[in-house]
């Protein structure tokens, strides 16, 4: 089992980052998502809500560096420290 982090920063790629995270979890790996700096793109909310339902069902960790309902807050410094434990890091 690998530890995988998916960092999502680009507002245009929020949906894609969530979709990829859900798919990676199907391989039996431990996946954590880090939403960075800004909330989801409002235009993509219906698709994002579907992805989040699946993500929550499979137990993917949800973190953000700002206050966001359903996500655990984590500072930028702690994100950097946490990256050391991952085998693979994807950046969107």
Automatic annotation (TrEMBL):
It comes from the Bacteria. This is Uncharacterized protein.
């Amino acid at each position: 089992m690998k530890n995988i982090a998916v960092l999502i920063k680009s507002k245009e790629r929020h949906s894609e980052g969530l979709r990829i995270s859900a798919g990676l979890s199907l391989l039996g790996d431990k996946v954590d998502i880090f939403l960075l700096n800004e909330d989801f793109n409002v235009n993509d909310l219906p698709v994002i809500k579907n992805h989040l339902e699946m993500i929550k069902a499979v137990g993917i960790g949800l973190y953000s560096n700002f206050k966001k309902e359903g996500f655990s807050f984590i500072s930028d410094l702690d994100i950097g420290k946490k990256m050391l434990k991952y085998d693979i890091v994807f950046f969107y």
